[in-house]
TrEMBL record:
The lineage of its organism: Eukaryota, Viridiplantae, Streptophyta, Embryophyta, Tracheophyta. It comes from Cannabis sativa. GO terms for molecular function: hydrolase activity, acting on ester bonds; metal ion binding. It holds the Pfam family Metallophos. PANTHER family: INACTIVE PURPLE ACID PHOSPHATASE 28-RELATED, PHOSPHATASE DCR2-RELATED-RELATED. This is Calcineurin-like phosphoesterase domain-containing protein. It is found in: Secreted. SUPFAM superfamilies: Metallo-dependent phosphatases. Keywords: Glycoprotein, Iron, Membrane, Metal-binding, Secreted, Signal, Transmembrane, Transmembrane helix, Zinc.
């Protein structure tokens, strides 16, 4: 009898012990014992509907967020704001501004054009990226980002940053084109690579139900303009390299190839070339010339570009499809100016933890593409407009202008 009781006690103990182990494993698995953020990494990424496309009302609206400069969240202080507001101002003000923009403008796509996080004051790059992109991730709106010169100054290098960003909810960011695509672009037959991280092309399809519903009618090009470089012993900013321009030219020509028209009585017919927009962080040297030309918006600080001119403007001009380029980097510039038929527009500083100009509200740019109306359906892009919104009491809408318009949309 006694030995049976002992056995029984022993098995109760074993059961309890097993239960204890299971409980620990369960808690670990459900992240009760792990830091909060890692829970997000274990989840499956949420994807927006593919591909990007115009709305049934024939519009596609892009919100450009330039220089969000997110640090550590509530402990990162605002810069260049009135002293009176200093105590209650942090990265969270940038978050609120982003939510305000998303709510008011209801964009179809958000483009973050670099210096998304202010690496030098972010103790953990992953935490900071979650903080920076949270409003976009929560909105369910497709979004994409490229890197500036400050993003990699925390705990991730540029490759890690772009991989991480491409895995966040509703992100359509890509790291780089495939080796196959790059080899086709170079036509060398060798395995080719590209400089930087975050060079990619997104296509926006026509309105649902229209004859362009399965065709790209607007192309978006994203390029990595690098961070810092040393040229002949002198420190300067990064620039877009030859390998990137070669791919860009190829990607543009590929989407301009002749397409068979569905209208048999007119075949073969080349559809009008879809207009394109390009996004990169560091302005090109020619942007300086705009100071002596006409521009719309404010030109309030020197263009902090690279000392190297790699021929970006010539490539863009030779492509023929790029109508607008959207940049960041210089927070106190928010103008659009035209170089050789292409508009170069700054977003204007968005984030409160980045430098700004005292008394000059933080701001964001909106880009609206509109389709032309055919007899009974939407056609290609007819017009591209832009304006800015200020994070002031009136949420002021300023500097509205038409960047491009075409008769092609009407055919
Ligand atoms: C930052 O947000 C707080 C809380 O909403 C607000 O009181 C403060 O005025 C904001 N600061 C700036 C500079 O917008
Ligand atoms: C677009 O593709 C869908 C799905 O393949 C098809 O049902 C539709 O007819 C296509 N529309 C046009 C205009 O080609
Ligand atoms: C095809 O093109 C002809 C000539 O422009 C036009 O009359 C006809 O309506 C078109 N058909 C379709 C289906 O678009
Ligand atoms: C907001 O709008 C009102 C009324 O139009 C105007 O009086 C005020 O100066 C504006 N404030 C700002 C900050 O633009």
């Amino acid at each position: 009898m006694e030995s049976a009781t002992q056995k029984w006690n022993h098995s109760v103990f074993s059961l309890l012990y097993l239960f204890f182990i299971y409980a620990i494993l369960y808690l670990l698995h459900s992240n009760v014992l792990l830091p909060h953020e890692s829970h997000l990494l274990l989840r499956i990424k949420k994807n927006p509907p593919h591909p990007l496309r115009f709305r049934p009302d024939g519009t596609f609206k892009i919100l450009q967020v330039a220089d969000l400069h997110y640090g550590n969240g509530p402990t990162s202080r605002c810069r260049d704001i009135p002293i009176s507001g200093f105590r209650h101002c942090s990265d969270l003000n940038s978050t609120w501004f982003l939510r305000r923009m998303i709510q008011a403008e209801n964009p179809d796509f958000i483009a973050f054009t670099g210096d998304n996080i202010f690496g030098s004051s972010a103790t953990d790059a992953a935490e900071s990226l979650f903080g920076a992109f949270r409003p976009a991730m929560e909105s369910g709106i497709p979004w994409a980002a490229i890197l500036g010169n400050h993003d990699q100054e925390s705990t991730m290098n540029r490759e890690e940053l772009m991989s991480f960003i491409s895995l966040l909810d509703y992100s359509v960011s890509q790291i780089n084109p495939s080796v196959e695509e790059l080899s086709n672009a170079a036509k060398t037959g060798k395995r080719e690579t590209i400089d930087g991280f975050g060079n990619y092309n997104l296509r926006v399809f026509g309105a649902p139900g229209s004859h362009l519903a399965n065709s790209s009618v607007l192309n978006l090009f994203f390029l990595d303009s690098g961070d810092r470089e040393t040229v002949k012993g002198i420190r300067t900013y990064g620039w877009i390299k030859e390998s990137q321009l070669r791919w860009l030219y190829y990607a543009s020509k590929r989407s301009q190839g002749p397409k068979k028209c569905t209208n048999r009585s007119l075949s073969p017919l080349t559809l009008p070339t879809p207009p394109a927009l390009a996004f990169f962080h560091i302005p090109i040297p020619e942007v300086r010339q705009l100071y002596y030309k006409t521009f719309i918006g404010q030109f309030q600080e020197a263009v902090a570009c690279s000392s190297v001119n790699s021929g970006v403007l010539q490539t863009l001009v030779s492509m023929g499809d790029v109508k607008g380029v959207f940049m960041g980097h210089d927070h106190k510039n928010d103008f659009c100016g035209n170089l050789d038929g292409i508009w170069f527009c700054y977003g204007g500083g968005f984030g409160y933890h980045g430098y700004g100009k005292y008394g000059w509200p933080r701001r964001a740019r909106v880009i609206l593409a509109e389709l032309g109306k055919g007899e009974n359906a939407w056609m290609g892009v007819e017009q591209i407009k832009t304006w800015k919104r200020l994070d002031d009491d009136n949420f002021s809408k300023i500097d509205e202008q038409i960047l491009w318009s075409s008769d092609h949309g009407r055919e």
